[in-house]
Structure formats: C-alpha cells, structure tokens
Amino acid sequence: MTQKLCIRVTLEKDGKTPKRELLYDGLKVGDISYVELVDFIMQATSSLRFEIKR
User: Fold this and answer.
1) Regarding beta strands 27-31 and 5-11, do their DSSP bridges make them parallel or antiparallel, or are they unpaired?
2) Is 20:12 a contact under the CB 8 Å cutoff?
3) Computed from CA positions of residues 30, 33, 37, 43, in that sequence, does the dihedral angle turn out positive or negative?
4) pLDDT tens-digit profile of 22-31?
C-alpha cells in the first residue's frame, strides 16, 4: 500500500521553527499550520467511527 496523503515536517532556516507541508501523492499541496494539522487529525480520527468491522 502506498501512502497518498502525508504531512512533511522540516525546520525553517533558523533551525528552530517547524515548517509543515501537506503532500498528496508525493507532491506538495501547500503549507499547513499547527491548528490546521490538529483539525485534520481530528477529522481523520472522527471519520474512523464509520468503519465497519468485518
């Protein structure tokens, strides 16, 4: 299984500030803030309640 959606975290040039980037299929879609990242995680976690146990 290949990873389609991921968040890449690197450090800015100052070496202290994290930079978060949203990637889809290995291509950068855009930058994402800490709050947007937390919101994304909450949405993804919440969507798991609709999974059917097999």
Assistant:
1) unpaired
2) no
3) negative
4) 999 999 999 9
